[in-house]
Amino acid sequence: MRQIRTELLTQAEFAPFGDVLDATGAPDRLINQGFCGRFHDRARLDFGPEGRAGLSIFKAIPRQFPYRLEMVERHPEGSQAFVPMSADPFLVIVAPDVGGTPGTPRAFVTDGEQAINLYRGTWHGVLTPLAEPGLFAVIDRIGTTPNLEEHWFPEPYTILPG
Amino acid sequence: MRQIRTELLTQAEFAPFGDVLDATGAPDRLINQGFCGRFHDRARLDFGPEGRAGLSIFKAIPRQFPYRLEMVERHPEGSQAFVPMSADPFLVIVAPDVGGTPGTPRAFVTDGEQAINLYRGTWHGVLTPLAEPGLFAVIDRIGTTPNLEEHWFPEPYTILPG
Fold first, then answer.
1. Which residues of chain A are within 8 Å of residue B43 when distances are taken between CB atoms?
2. ipTM here
């Protein structure tokens, strides 16, 4: 079975796929009499011509390594941001598009203080927390037209800690 | 000094001010082969005619009780959602509007697994985490026109645990 080792999530490595949202570096503004740093407008949100932003809550069952990756999906009509509501690392699987199908996936693990925003159309694995409670806020496109493509790999991948 | 006791945050009590976003009750959909519950489109987002959705990260210094409340603010042009990125309770202060100025504030404490969305125009206190890391994702209106009104109380309130 094909194996993939996880990498630590960084903005540089994740740049082809989406945004890493965190509070590293200097804030864009200090607000609230200096009590709060604002890292301003850090996600390339895109809900397409027919969509609008929605905020949903996802509660997912935590997974363990080795993780068996059988499919990835993408949303052609909108970006999708995942904000963890606990300070726990989670697994983020993405893949480049190669002529309309996913190429070799990459697997990232967050540092516990990162959210992500997948760009519109990015191939990605389903939400895979690594710890309870598996609770996330999701900012994605609400609309009436189809917005999901799935790709099942002919042979699954095994994801292992890097 | 005027004192206010905190209340536990519930959707029923918070309804005049905004949405409580959590994973209580049955999910609207089961997705990802049953591994994930989706509580779908739970926030009344509103970014006004000239605005768009933005996703920012706030990092705020935790506060303690008794908390001295000197001002509230509101955003006439948009809603503002606060998603905690750690499973810690935080303090949410809101006030009804009474003829253009805030009435008596109310103070809520979340249960550690709740996010909130303040409706457009709701008077509210600044972001007040009660624990480190004080990290939040904020979904609010990005635009070019003014979107902040502040009200300083002639006499501060003291917020005490309920």
1. 54-55
2. 0.97
